[in-house]
Amino acid sequence: MNTHQPSTDRYDKMQYTYCGNSGLLLPRISLGLWHNFGSVDDFGVATDMIKYAFDNGVTHFDLANNYGPEPGSAETNFGRILKENFQGYRDEMIISSKAGHSMWAGPYGDGSSRKNLMASIDQSLRRTGLEYFDIFYSHRYDGVTPVEETIQTLIDIVKQGKALYIGISKYPPAQARQAYEMMKAAGVPCLISQYRYSMFDRAIESETLPLAAEYGSGMIAFSPLAQGLLTDKYLHGIPENSRAARSTGFLQLSQVTDEKIQKAMQLNELAVRRGQTLAEMALAWVLKDERMTSVIVGASSVRQLAANLHTLDNLSFSAEELAEIETILNK
User: Fold this and answer.
1) How far apart are CA 77 and CA 249, in angstroms?
2) CB–CB of 224/198 below 8 Å?
3) Residue 297 CB contacts under 8 Å (≥ 6 apart), including other chains
4) Domains of the chain, with CATH numbers?
5) 36-45, 253-262, 293-302, range with the lowest pLDDT
6) How do strand 218-222 and strand 294-297 relate by DSSP bridges?
7) DSSP H or E run through 154
8) Is the confidence at residue 244, as pLDDT, over 60?
9) Are strands 190-196 and 163-169 parallel, antiparallel or unpaired?
10) Rounded mean pLDDT, 177-199
11) What is the model's pLDDT at position 240?
12) pTM, whole model, 2 decimals?
């Protein structure tokens, strides 16, 4: 076993901020393992990306039990990478996972019941080889399970020592408030809330973001680049190997509209004037809100991850730049 020896100055390369009303620092940029870390992906590339992330101060790695494909394989691969490369560094990492989406066959492999969450965290701990998760989320409100059942399970998970903190993801505002109230009353407040957020998807701005701040919950954004629409990837058509070119996946060809491409092209012009790529500017825009603790980036290569980390070189916007972005987005 060749345990990886991270660079000693890695923390100087990252910016950190406190997560909500807590003493936990999170990196402004976190690495998500939603794509490119499963059993169908190149294990060597996945290993190199995690090494590079950690070498550059990315301490937070975001998983879920169903990440793959195959479901569960991202956790398995991450556990193997930790064992082979990061012995002795567990206490320098924040590792999160989630449960609540379809994972195994039968009536108990889906949803947000106590049965599902308890089985899921035990399975996830076995796959990763960890003794505990730093953060464990309810991945969604399933529309059926009472919020009280789900949240009591999360509280119990902390009290059992299987997670240090808990969070929610994609909860509607009414259910989120109920969850926050219950966690607060139990003395296990919601550390963090995870939602989709980007210049092309701003649904959380009106209720969800202020609500999380009201209860002292940190906020972390996923899909900040709108599955690649807020990069230069689609400015000149649909690349053959892109997500939009696949028949399955989360970005369908129908979503790559002329309207969005035109907006992306105009945003790209502004990014160039700022000395950034469109992706860097899109990430910086998400992080401009002081309530936003961190942003989750996905990557398919070390080169792509390195480019995303350059976002930290310029996180500030002038009033004129913000006004120009609003004008472009509202056309």
Assistant:
1) 21
2) yes
3) 29, 30, 31, 32, 224, 225, 283, 305, 308
4) 10-227+285-312 (3.20.20.100)
5) 253-262
6) parallel
7) helix 147-159
8) no
9) parallel
10) 98
11) 52
12) 0.93
